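Q: Convert this sequence to structure tokens.
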Amino acid sequence: MDLSKGVLSAVRDGERAYVHVSAGSHAEPRGGGQGFERVREGLGGVALAVGATPDPVLRATAGLDVTVLYATTVRPFDEIGPRTAVLAADRADVVLVGPGRPGIAAGHVAETLVHVPHRLLVPGAADTHDEPALGRAVREFLT
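A:
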């Protein structure tokens, strides 16, 4: 989503807008719309990448049978994409990787999956800068 459209939409709706500026960039253009886009299909769990994290998440889950979903932002939170992916997976294990404090989007995921028994791993934002550590944490959690 165009950054200015997201901020203007939040202002118009009387909501707060969170803008995270990062020096990182994506290997491929991503995030043309609202909500989560499916980047990779898998059945062994679901990884949610938010903001500037899709490339580290894709590398951390390389070789794993995991669905990877990407969203430019968590607001407004797309409940349908993650819920659909988790219900389609063989295991309801979810990894949520995003910028900022780890708990911000975890509440959205918990609300979305309130009726689905699941496990949730939310590594800290610093872990996206330490890709080997992120990879180990994700692999230990999902395998």
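The radius of gyration is 14 Å.
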